Amino acid sequence: MEIRQLEALNAVVTSGSVTAAGRLLGRSQPVVSRQVSDLEAELGFVLFERTRPTITLTEAGVQFYQDVRSILADLHQLQSHVMGMRSGEIRPLRILATSDLAQGLLPVALALVDRFNAVFPQKLILEESVYEVTARGILERRADFALINLPIDIEGLQVHWCGQAPCQLALPAAHPLAGQPIIHLEDIHNTDVITLLGRYRMRFHLINSLVQLTSRDKRRHIEVSSQQTALSMVRAGLGVALIDPFTVPSFAAGDIVVRPIATDIPYRIGVVSPVGHLLTEGASRLIRGLYTHVRSTVPQYLDTDVNGLQAQTVVPQANLKHA
Question: Are 234 and 172 in contact (CB under 8 A)?
């Protein structure tokens, strides 16, 4: 099995035809076709269903291509690292995070930790995921670590720390309940409720909890894709919002009040990295800093196991320095 064969397979898939793949790679159409055929012969199964005018991957081809794409991404990343080393560049710190955590919790903790000792020497790359961050997404993107919402499939991942805190309710400052220190959901009555989209596994749990507790009331339900949008809706007087406790301090303003809820609706987050991935000292320092910041600022934060089923003592590991 040769790299040129894998490149040919990738080019055919991404371009949609053997002819277009040849133009993409700077090879003739017969050469690309032969490389794919030789690869199929070596594998012992067919990669493409050749039905003109298009060709599509077989079921086995789809599974094989997923691995090929990951391998080629690694090679491209290696080439990039080599070029950077030649020019004296240092490997950047790469972080993957859900959008709300990337825009709320992470910048504050990063600024606090970086103020005393720089966590990245030259470059930091922060990639945001609008919805959930999946285990495969972490592994494919090859982030140094990910700040995520839980639950998640942890196969192939090292969990550095994880925990939970109860959700809170954001209300307009002029709302009749804004003066109460604790909000009972039963007191919301017919006020419209704003939550995050149900396509998140965690959000589905939150919405279900809210619906069950307020099922007897008549109200409309607004679903949005971010905490910022939810708070903008609250600010405009469109309702009250169920907010996660880890990002709300960064988003709330004077015309919005945030109150604890009498009913415990847990929200879980954590930091994970690919198993076997060597973290720089800066990355390890930031992971510890995130944990310290959460413990000191998030009300009723509790360390848990990755499923949130039992409390445990969590001490973020320093991990190994990058050689």
Answer: yes
| 182 burial type by CB count under 10 A (0-12 exposed, 13-18 middle, 19+ buried) | exposed
Question: Which residues are 51's β-sheet partners?
Answer: 54
* CA distances (Å), origin 180, targets 43, 64, 172, 254, 262: 67, 58, 13, 16, 11
Please indicate, yes or no, whether the overall pTM of this predicted structure exceeds 0.70.
Answer: no
Residue 211 is predicted with a pLDDT of: 59
Residue 232 is part of a domain; what is its CATH number?
Answer: 3.40.190.10
Beta bridge partners of 304: 311
Residues 101 and 272: their CA atoms lie apart, in Å, by 14
In a domain, 236, yes or no: yes
Q: What is the CATH number of the domain that holds 118?
A: 3.40.190
- Which of 86, 111, 144 corresponds to the end of one domain? 86
Q: Do residues 122 and 89 lie in contact, with contact meaning Cβ atoms separated by under 8 Å? A: yes
Which tokens hold the place of 122? Answer: 């030259």
Alpha helix (H) ranges present in 87-223? Answer: 99-103, 105-116, 135-141, 201-213
267/163 Cα distance (integer angstroms): 8
Last residue of a domain, one of 34, 61, 86: 86
The 10s digit of each residue's pLDDT in 43-78 is 898 888 877 667 788 888 888 888 888 788 777 766
Q: Name every residue whose Cβ is closer than 8 Å to that of residue 216 and which is 6 or more positions away in sequence.
A: none
Longest dimension (CA), the chain: 75
Number of residues in the chain = 323
Three-class secondary structure of residue 173 per DSSP = coil
From the CB of residue 267, how many other CB atoms can be counted at a distance below 10 Å? Answer: 24
Cβ–Cβ under 8 Å, residues 126 and 141: no
Cβ atoms of 271 and 145 closer than 8 Å = yes
